[in-house]
Specification:
The protein contains eleven helices and nine strands. It has helices spanning 8-20, 36-48, 66-71, 76-84, 98-102, 120-124, 128-143, 155-168, 197-202, 204-216, 222-235, and strands at residues 3-5, 25-30, 51-56, 91-94, 147-151, 173-177, 239-248, 264-272, 275-282. Strand 5, helix 8 and strand 6 form a beta-alpha-beta unit. Helix 7 (128-143) crosses helix 8. It starts with a strand and ends with a strand. The structure holds adenosine monophosphate (AMP).
Length: 284
């Protein structure tokens, strides 16, 4: 039986009983509308821990655009059905209310992420990462897991959560998990449910561009790789490019020259039919 908690106190009491048995706890925070990307994180957490907490909470403070928050898919009953297919008694679900997380004051805290939040998502979604870090901190304080699982799908978020854990000095390992894609290469996302079948198929061109960039890394100037991606999207009838960046994988600083001993990553954000999609790829 999967346990479902919606109060900090009730899940804390339960976690306390696990810690007296010396159980290790894995944590997978989500905003629901679960798909196979979420499930891959949950399965990895189940493999690596005695017990796993999945949270479903749509965090208002990380939405810079109220419209996007209003349109965010929510279907708890369906999510519970999906979680039950895992049939694992190691699994508990935490579905706190806004009041449980924020009390009466829904606001975000500011952190110093040493520049990690200045690029890409941070630039185009002001305040987004302060909101993410605020809720992750609050959830980690309640769940106090040994390991917390985050997808590389949100690569910049993964680096920021790592930095947050370091800043807070929590005894926790942040585990980055690979991106799950559909059969055409589109990165799975809760937002994909808002795309028509045609748009979903068309969006697989985002990943094709990332693969092309990866192929060209050692043969083409960075400026030219970027220019050809920009040109592709200028000519695309359906998609609009918000950003495409080639950055150092550890610090997200953009680069114009490739150094063989440095890891690079390409990150992209695209709009299609009023849906904003992000993706990224390790280049070397
Ligand atoms: P979300 O519900 O979108 O906030 O995502 C919850 C967690 O699942 C985050 O750590 C995401 O990075 C991760 N995630 C979302 N989509 C994918 C995917 N396609 N592959 C791997 N991880 C994902």
């Amino acid at each position: 039986m999967m346990r479902v908690f919606n109060k900090n106190q009730s899940i804390s009491d339960f976690l306390e009983s696990l810690s007296t048995q010396n159980f290790s706890v894995g944590f997978v925070p989500t905003m629901g509308a679960l798909h196979n990307g979420h499930l891959s994180l949950i399965k990895q957490a189940i493999d690596e821990n005695d017990h796993v907490i999945v949270s479903i909470y749509i965090n208002p403070t990380q939405f810079d655009d109220k419209h996007d928050l209003d349109k965010y898919p929510y279907n708890l009953e369906e999510d519970i059905k999906i979680l039950k297919t895992i049939k694992n008694d190691k699994l508990s679900l935490f579905t706190p209310s806004n009041f449980e997380i924020y009390g009466k004051n829904i606001s975000k805290e500011n952190f110093n992420f040493e520049g990690l939040d200045q690029h890409m998502e941070g630039k185009f979604r002001p305040g987004h990462f302060a909101g993410v870090a605020t809720v992750v901190k609050k959830l980690l304080e309640v769940v106090r897991p040994n390991k917390a699982y985050f997808g590389e799908k949100d690569y910049q978020q993964l680096l920021i959560v790592n930095k947050l854990a370091e800043l807070l000095k929590f005894p926790i390992s942040i585990i980055g998990c690979p991106i799950s894609r559909d059969e055409n290469g589109l990165a799975l996302s809760s937002r994909n449910s808002r795309l028509s079948t045609d748009d979903r198929l068309h969006s697989s061109l985002i990943y094709k561009n990332l693969l092309l960039a990866k192929d060209q890394l050692f043969t083409t100037e960075i400026a030219n790789i970027k220019a050809s991606v920009q040109e592709f999207f200028l000519n695309d009838p359906k998609m609009e490019l918000e950003y495409f960046e080639i950055v150092e994988a550890d610090n997200l600083e953009s680069t114009s020259k490739i150094n063989k001993n440095t890891k690079y990553r390409a990150l992209i954000a695209v709009h299609i039919s009023n849906v904003r999609l992000i993706d990224n790829i390790a280049l070397n």
